[in-house]
Amino acid sequence: MSSSTHASHEAHKDYEGSKLGMWLFLFTEILLFGGLFLLYSAYRAKYPFDFHNGGQHLNTFIGVLNTVILLTSSLTVAIAISAIQKGNRRLTLLCLSATIVFGLLFLVDKYIEWSAEIGHGIYPNGPELLKLPDGEKIFYGLYYCMTGLHGLHVIAGIIVLSIMLAFVRSGKITSTDFNKLENAGLYWHLVDVIWIFLLPLLYLSA
Amino acid sequence: MERAEQHGHIVSYLTFVKVWLVLLFLTAMLVVAGTIFHPTLSVPALLTLTPLKAGLVFYYFMHLKYEKPFLKAAVFVALALLTVFIALIFLDISYR
Amino acid sequence: MTSAAQNASVSSYLDAGDRRGFPAWILSTDHKRIGILYLASLAVLFFVAVAIGVLMRVEQLSVNPPPFAPATYNAFFTVHGVIMIFMFVLPGLPSVFGNFFLPILIGARDVAFPRLNLMSWYFYIAGALIAVAALFTGNGPPDTGWTFYAPYSLRSGTNVTLAVFAAFVLGFSSILTGINFITTIHRLRAPGMTWHRMPLFAWSLYGTAWIQVLVTPIIGITLLLVVAERVFGVGVFDPAKGGDPILYQHLFWIYSHPAVYIMILPAMGAITEIIPTFAHRTIFGYRAIAYSSIAIAALGSLVWGHHMFTSGMGELANTVFSLLTFIVAVPSAIKVFNWTSTLYKGSIELKPPMLFALTFIFLFSIGGLTGLMQGALNVNTHLHDTYFIVGHFHYVMFGGTGMGFLAALLYWFPKMFGKMYNEKMAAIAWVPIFIGFNMLYFTMLILGMMGMPRRYFTHLPQYHTGHVIASIGAFILASGLLLFFANLAIALIKGKKVAQNPWGGVTLEWLIPTPPPRDNFEEIPTIDDRPYVFNPEAAQ
Questions:
Q1: I need a labelling partner for C71 at 20 to 30 A (CA). Which of B71, C90, C193, C512 fits?
Q2: How far is C28 from A39, CA to CA, in rounded Å?
């Protein structure tokens, strides 16, 4: 009944608006992890020695390896986006797949790391943890919360990127309509940024 | 240039690789700084190198360099807000 | 501009589209229908919370013995707070009137992300259902107070985990609304509608949306940590494991204080729409009101410590937070001066929306002033955790946001539904609402000064008279609310059809048919002037 000249508005896509929406969502993620960073800084100020000890016991090698993996995955997803903009569909698919593989590698490392610590009885309410001084208990509590929440976001990112991979394959994402991929990339980069902060806080706490 | 095909500034592959190399280098420096248990050196190093790495990811990988000033300001506000929260809390816990 | 005759022939958003019945509503991405969905769900939850509040006042009527067990009373005030705050006051104005009117006010056909909009309502319903589950499963409803302070919230045997998770889910609803509104305002303003030609309700929603986006995640992580502690024993706030409960309070209030600005800014925005219309004068100090909305959002993020003055914070922190609290009162006061100046030399029509708008100004001012009193450290030491605080926040949340919500409802009801309610009845309902409100909450201010603690299931003899007065006030208030909503409900069913612009408003929503068509505008208008221009020569 209402004027039919406005069917066109359904098809109208707002690239800038979509990107703005994604950035706003990223702000919520920054503040979500921010709460944990806030707690970390407060408790580190309270228990400097215990936090240092806690950091020493974590596996620095895996931490650094995971950092390199995520940084490289950021490179590949960034290249994937430039590639689709240039119309190089093959390179996009290659780099997107690489990003997903890196993400999975990260998760495998994480699994190995957590298994080791859990095996040593160091987990929330674990037998060895309860023997540790208070500050170290808090350190490991924060360690599991921060890396756990981060890990969930890595999983979410892998799922989203896989869906984008399917979209590129099926032609839903093209060189002129790629903002879904760009938004997915933004999300992935933020996951990387969070890890950039987690590395020194947890693994390199001097 | 602003409207390549339909929209979006295209960043070259080489720029991304260069940024990636710098990030790897900074990570190496970070590891060196972090494994020297000398609070006077390593904590300031961590506090400057880490935001620098994050900044590079924001600026180049996330295209922030090529975005409108408003978006840059918004990112700044979000990060500044978090910093202010931490600062005000330290006003409490440092002087109890 | 369509005439009344054309008005009748244009189909509205209420008419059936390509779906019918229930799915036509709960699958609709039309911002107007989503606003109505929120209104319906909110109204139900509001009355549940009112009923619990009434039961709390029944408890205090009798000391020997009180009608309900102490544990029951603890559950009462917890659930009353959780529902009111997370399911009524926070989402109220943004999700109902923001959703319905923001696109229309700025000349758009919908919000930036219509499907995300519907999802935000789904999150709201999911959160509400989880909260209801917390009431009736396991060891029963939480008894920690809506603030869920550690360490008790970590140890209480009641359904804290479920309740806290409900609040977490509700937070997503708030965040999605915020993301949607910021993007809508940035991207979808009609041609010619510069920032300084936007209606002030839109400005208030803009400030609100930034708070929603930036601080809601903090409560998100805090509540997640409470769940992690209860389920996995993580120990971040538990003093037995080296944790600091005051850090819980910091994180909690870093969200919950700005949250009150999420509550009040849209109400102030609605009042700012209503007053010019019924004073037939342009708003005084447009820029002052616009910028003070942003200032309140910004400054309001820095004052959370004033909830914690007696908790064990250091003295320096106490002093700084007290100073910041005094400063944040300034932009709010600016608004009150602007509204009053708008009224001055206006041609005032005391229609029901205006009546409630003026009530808002009066009650909110009392709330604000009592807030300032609490901001003074020495006074706070005496008043913290007393009924004075309870009186204060009801003056601002109920006398402020609540009255703002009722005023907005009276103002925009005809536009939303195309029917008029009984204006006389609305004014009559105001009487018990106003009298009951002040009997209930002013008495609380006095009880608090006398030393009556909050969250106590009973009281000492010297407080009894005050409690009886307050309880009677509550019953009067509740009857007034029932009368108010009955009036609107009757109007929904058999109200008279209303003209396109019954109040003579000049903002965009009054220039389109009543109720609005599915796509709002026949043609997106081009704006060439600032809002609230009342032409004295033009007939009403």
A1: C90
A2: 41
CB contact (8 A) between residue C112 and residue A21: yes
- What residues of B are in contact with residue C186 (Cβ under 8 Å)? 70
If phi > 0 it is left, if psi is from -120 to 50 it is alpha, else beta; for residue C359 that is: alpha
Asked if A72 lies within 8 A of B20 by C-beta distance, the reply is yes
- For residue A8, being part of any structural domain is answered with no
Nearest to A35 among C218, C235, C241 (CB): C218
- Is C414 within a domain? yes
Residue C283 is given by DSSP the state: P
CA atoms of C255 and C211, how far apart (whole Å) = 9
Residue A1 covered by a domain: no
Chain A residues within an 8 Å CB radius of C518: 2
B95–C contact, CB cutoff 8 A: yes
Interface test with A, best of C176, C187, C236 (most A CBs within 10 A): C236
Going residue by residue through chain B, which has 96 residues, state the pLDDT in tens, using 9 for 90 and above: 333 444 568 999 999 999 999 999 999 998 888 777 566 677 788 889 999 999 999 999 999 999 999 999 999 999 999 999 999 999 999 998
A162 domain residue, yes or no: yes
Q: Give how far B10 is from chain A: nearest CA, Å.
A: 6
CATH of the domain at A84: 1.20.120.80
What are C84's two structure tokens? 């009111």
Show me where the domains of chain B are located: 1-62, 68-96
Q: Which of B70, B85, B96 sits opposite C254 (nearest CB)?
A: B85
What ipTM describes this predicted complex?
0.94
Give domain status of residue A174, yes or no. yes
Q: For residue A80, give the nearest of A19, A193, A195, A169 by alpha carbon.
A: A169
Asked if residue C109 belongs to a domain, the reply is: yes
Number of domains in chain C: 1
Residue C39 lies in a domain: yes
Task: Read off the CATH number of the domain in which C51 is found.
Answer: 1.20.210.10
Strand-pair partners of C420: C496
* Global confidence as pTM: 0.95
Domain of A90 in residue numbering reads as 15-203
d(CA B44, CA A204): 13
C window 146-185, beta carbon within 8 A of A: 175, 178-180, 182-183
CA distance C455 to C66: 14
